[in-house]
Specification:
Protein name: AAA domain-containing protein
CATH class: Alpha Beta
Number of domains: 1
CATH superfamily: P-loop containing nucleotide triphosphate hydrolases
CATH topology: Rossmann fold
Organism: Candidatus Sulfotelmatobacter kueseliae
Pfam families: AAA_31
Helix content: 25-40%
InterPro entries: AAA_dom, DNA_Partitioning_ATPase, P-loop_NTPase
Bound molecules: adenosine-5'-triphosphate, magnesium ion
Oligomer: single chain
């Protein structure tokens, strides 16, 4: 653990600049892009930097909960009870192996909240209101979202100050991104005007391949400084750690995976210090490649730009003009 302590000390150097209660939703409706791995390991890295951090499992799959070593238990107070108003966030808090990391667990019964709340008044504000009393106790509150733009993700985006978008460095990385940005903008225009984009992070990234470099260049062109300098490599330790119920920095602090999330935490803390909470309106022109067809497997790499489909350029993304810039870097 000496190495963790070393990074913790390094991270702690910048942590005093972090305001209390920053809520970061880890969201991408695409499945398997590394949301949970990012939520667990980023939150653990914040905690290792000696800042009080709360991780909230907002996904009925409960992978964050099991990834921190908590067995499935329908009797345990969870995010379901919290969102349904049956328990307070305080009552749902669990301590973890890391002294400064707390968890609000999930259970598969959370899937019912989507239906049970459908007609409820203020249904999108349930999580925000539930977490409000805890905001002063944690420097970071990290929300792991399900792979859907459903009411649970909506609750997370309404509760959040910013969204961190993990994207896999592969051909289809941009698939569906316009839908996510659309949703973020719509929420900003109504339910949560303060919502920003924290950053975009490339996961399972192999920078030795031409394809990965091309995808990175595409994302850089579109997201500009929102794209994290830190990338997360494909690393077996990151995949193994959840089965031991541990964040990677506890399971194997020397692994490339653990190191990358420690660097990511540092980058995010530094971004905070510099006050670069970007909004979608700060992004570059919306690329044609944002359309679901444009970043498609093609012999030479990234496909030439197709038009973004009608309906994905609606009012909610009007601050991100549809453009055909993205494919020019390919
Ligand atoms: P879902 O959409 O189902 O919630 P997710 O976006 O949360 O998925 P993860 O569960 O974090 O994605 O990751 C999907 C799979 O890929 C998991 O088996 C995880 O262990 C593995 N994985 C994630 N990141 C890495 C990585 N950097 N290196 C190796 N394996 C990884
Ligand atoms: Mg997940």
């Amino acid at each position: 653990m000496r190495r963790v302590a070393h990074y913790a000390a390094e991270l702690a150097l910048v942590s005093p600049y972090t305001p209390m209660g920053r809520v970061i939703a880890i969201a991408n409706q695409k499945g398997g892009v590394g949301k949970t791995t990012t939520a667990i390991n980023l939150a653990a890295s914040f905690a290792a930097a000696e800042v009080n951090t709360l991780l909230v499992d907002c996904d009925p799959q409960s992978n964050t909960t099991s990834g921190l070593g908590f067995a499935k238990d329908p009797g345990r107070i969870s995010s379901y009870h919290m969102i349904m108003g049956a328990a307070s966030a305080e009552e749902a808090l669990l301590t973890t192996e890391l002294e400064q990391l707390w968890l609000i667990p999930s259970h598969k019964n959370l899937v019912g909240a989507n239906l049970e709340l459908v007609d409820a008044e203020g249904r999108e504000f349930r999580l925000r209101e539930a977490l409000a009393p805890l905001r002063d106790r944690f420097q970071f509150i990290v929300l792991d979202c399900p792979p859907a733009l459903d009411l649970l993700t909506l609750n997370a985006l309404v509760a959040a100050d910013a969204v961190l978008i993990p994207m896999q460095g592969e051909y289809f990385a941009l698939e569906g991104i316009s839908e996510l940005l659309d949703t973020i903008d719509r929420i900003r225009q109504g339910l949560n005007p303060g919502l920003g984009i924290e950053a975009v992070v490339l996961t399972m990234f192999d920078d030795r391949t031409n394809l990965a470099q091309q995808v990175r260049a595409e994302l850089q062109n579109f997201f500009g400084e929102k794209l994290c300098a830190t990338t997360v490599p494909r690393n077996i330790r990151l995949a193994e750690a959840p089965s031991y119920g541990k964040p990677a920095l506890v399971y194997d602090p020397r692994s490339k995976g653990a190191e990358s999330y420690i660097r990511l935490a540092k980058e995010i803390i530094e971004r905070q210090a510099l006050g670069t909470g970007l909004r979608t309106s700060d992004l570059g022109p919306q690329p044609a490649a944002v359309s679901d067809q444009a970043v498609a497997p093609a012999a030479g790499g990234i496909a030439e730009g197709a038009e973004a489909p009608a309906g994905q350029q609606g009012a909610a993304v009007e601050e991100i003009p549809a453009a055909d810039e993205m494919d020019k870097t390919a």
